[in-house]
Amino acid sequence: MVNTAAEVGNDLNKQTSVINNALNAYNSIIKAVNEIIPKIEEIANATSGINERKNEILTKVESAAAVAEENSGATEEISASSEEMNSSSVEVSNAANNLTSSTKEMRNQVKKFKL
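Now predict its structure.
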């Protein structure tokens, strides 16, 4: 019986040691979780800030795209106006050449009457 009591005592000591080790492990886990929670909150706040800045950038990009589209339309209008002006310039040049020819012909006709 003495051996049995000693064995039971040893078993109790072993179980107590295992329980203490388990408690220490749980305490370490709790400590680690408590240390991680503020870091997770910090990451969540940073992520929220990044998301807000992303939305601001997206708004600015959309605004820039709208301005670029307006500029593109204005450029097309300017190009069309330039083509019209070029066409008009060609017409004016042709009219001036015709006028010059008519003037030369008229001078030649007037010279005939001056004799």
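The mean pLDDT is 92.
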